[in-house]
Design a protein that fits this description.
Layout: E1 6-13, E2 20-27, E3 53-56, E4 60-63, H1 65-71, E5 78-86, E6 89-96, E7 101-102, E8 108-110, H2 113-120, E9 125-130, E10 137-140, E11 146-147, E12 156-157
Parallel strand pairs: 5-12
Antiparallel strand pairs: 1-2, 3-4, 3-9, 4-8, 5-6, 5-7, 6-10, 6-11, 9-10
Amino acid sequence: MTINSAKLIIEFLDPETGELTTQEATLGDFKEATKKATTRTRKVKSDDEPIPMVHLLSNKLQFNTKAIELTGFEVENKILINFEKKGRKVTPVMYLNDQGNRMTKTFTVSYRGSQHDNLLQYGENFEILPTEKDGYFKLKGNVEEIEDDIIDIPVQQNEEENIIDTDNLDNFDFDLEDA
């Protein structure tokens, strides 16, 4: 069945006089609408950055293509960023962890609230650098490195610094002040 035109009849009632007015309108040629099935292909955003970068946006992290290649992170991976202390320097470190946030098909990771605010202290654009630990990546921000007495962020201690030789406590420093 094909509809070529339509006739529209509109009736207006004037409440004061009770008069009924009728207007007719003919609507023009209608053509049978056909909808083609379309398939959407999602392309990785092309970027011109020559180095692996992650950008801190208002509520998420956006990875560039080079960052995905370097890290090997994939869609649905859960990515966590912690702050590691070495000496007096506190550095953001990124790695896969079940407690992290899930990467989307557009290579973004939700990053809101206090997580966002803590990382923002290091900058908005981060170069991704591999570390000596496999699967861990240092984030070098566009703000100079921060010392631990300047910033208040929950810090993940380097495991090697926490090892105490319990067999020989004679050389242990019981002084509670920082060296």
